[in-house]
Amino acid sequence: MSEFRITHEYPHPIERVWRVLTDPELVPRWTTTGQGGRPEGFAPVVGTKFRFVAKPVAGWRGIVDCEVLEVAAPALLRYSWIGDEGAAPSFVAYRLQPLPAGTRLTWEHTGFTGIGGFFMCRLLRSVRAKMLTQALPTVLDDPKLPA
């Protein structure tokens, strides 16, 4: 089984980081470094079924089906991730920890299986690393974003 974790620290309070990660209006602003997935039907409430919708590419329909599995705002969001119809789910978790000078975010994506899962894990890790080190800080630093 393949998985990855990316940890990054931001000089912002945990509530701000949580908001940027979970507000459906803000999520597309930091997912643009990937396929630009926007959440449809998302709410940080256990049992909520939602989708990330992006531009389809060869071999992928552009939709990820998800279900919120666990929420402990503003410290934890965990949801299932099914990128291909009929595929087994993998699992994404955002774990936030307050620090004296900001917030530590650990992004986990676990449960990839088989050789296809191995390659998908490597691809998504690369995309997520860029999102979390380039795009997410840009949104967090936006002075127009209410505190």
TrEMBL record:
Question: Where is the Activator of Hsp90 ATPase homologue 1/2-like C-terminal domain positioned along the sequence?
Answer: 12-113
Q: Which residues form a coiled coil?
A: none
Look up the domain of life of the source.
Bacteria
Pfam families referenced in this protein's UniProt entry, alphabetically: AHSA1 (PF08327)
Q: By its UniProt entry, which Gene3D superfamilies does this protein fall under?
A: 3.30.530.20
Q: What CDD domains does this protein's entry cite? A: SRPBCC_CalC_Aha1-like (cd07814)
Hey, which family's this protein in?
Answer: Belongs to the AHA1 family.
Q: What is this protein called?
A: SRPBCC domain-containing protein
Q: Which organism is it from?
A: Paractinoplanes lichenicola
